[in-house]
Amino acid sequence: MSQISHYPAAPFGDWDGSPAAARAMQLTLAAQVRLQDDFPALRLIAGVDVGFEDGGTVTRAAAVLLDADTLELVGSSLARIPTNMPYVPGLLSFRELPAVLQALAELPAVPDLIFSDGHGIAHPRRLGIAAHLGVVTGLPTIGVAKKLLTGEHDELDLQRGARVALRDKKTGDVIGCVLRSKDKVRPLIISPGNRVSLATAPELVMRYVTRYRLPEPTRLADRLASRREEKAASRRLAALR
DNA sequence: GCGACAG
DNA sequence: ATCTTGTCGC
C-alpha cells in the first residue's frame, strides 16, 4: 500500500498556545518517531530552512528540491507568513514549522528525504524541528544543526568525515552524531528526524556535502531563506558608492 | 539554586 | 535568526 504524505496546515492539533502544552505535545509526537531506515531509493531530496524579515515580524521559509544523483536544482519555493511566536529554546518547531510546511507544499513534487536545518531527536524531549516535521508529514527527515542544543560528546578528529556519538548526558543514549563535514571546520550536529537510523543519517549528510560545510540541500535552502544573494549584492553596491 | 539554551 | 567591517588563517 502506498502511504499518502501531505503537509498539514495545522501541525499542532488543538494546541492552546502555551509552552507547557507545547512540551507535552512534543512528548506525544516523539513517541511516533521511527528510527529504522525506511526510505525509498533516493531520487529527489529536499532542504528546508527559515529566515526572518522586517525585524522578525515575518517568517520566511525556503524549500529546495534537488536531483539526488546530480544535485541539480529541480525546484524551489518560498513561504512568507507573519511570525506568531518568539524563539524559545526547545520549542523552535512551534515557531518555524508552519512556514516550512507551506514552502514544502509548494514544491513541484514530494521529496524522498528532507534535510532540515536544526535538530532531529537530539533534543531535550527528542523532538527537534526535523523530527517534528518527519512525524507530521510521515516523510523521512534528517536534522542538520550548526550548534549543540543538548547532549555531550568526546573530541573529534579535525579531518573531513570524522565523527563521534552524541549522547544524552543523563541516560547515555545515543541521540545523534557530531560530524566534521570539512577539514577543520566547526562540526555539524546530525540527528535522525524520522524513518532514518542513527547510523545512516551522517552517511547521507556526507553524501551531499560538496565544497561547503553544509550539505547542499540545507545550504541552498539557507541561501534562499536568509537572502544571502540579495544582501551580498546590495552590500557590494553600497561599498562601491 | 545555577548554568545551558537549535534558529 | 538578525544587525554588521575588517581581518586572520588555510
TrEMBL record:
Pfam families: Endonuclease_5. The keyword Transmembrane helix does not apply. Coiled coil: none annotated. Keywords: Cytoplasm, DNA damage, DNA repair, Endonuclease, Hydrolase, Magnesium, Metal-binding, Nuclease. Signal peptide: none annotated. The record marks Y87 as: Interaction with target DNA. GO terms for cellular component: cytoplasm. Its main location: cytoplasm. One of its GO terms (biological process) is DNA repair. GO terms for molecular function: deoxyribonuclease V activity; magnesium ion binding; RNA endonuclease activity producing 5'-phosphomonoesters, hydrolytic mechanism; single-stranded RNA binding. Its cofactor is Mg(2+). It catalyses: Endonucleolytic cleavage at apurinic or apyrimidinic sites to products with a 5'-phosphate. Its EC number is 3.1.21.7. It is found in: Cytoplasm. DNA repair enzyme involved in the repair of deaminated bases. Selectively cleaves double-stranded DNA at the second phosphodiester bond 3' to a deoxyinosine leaving behind the intact lesion on the nicked DNA. Belongs to the endonuclease V family. This is Endonuclease V.
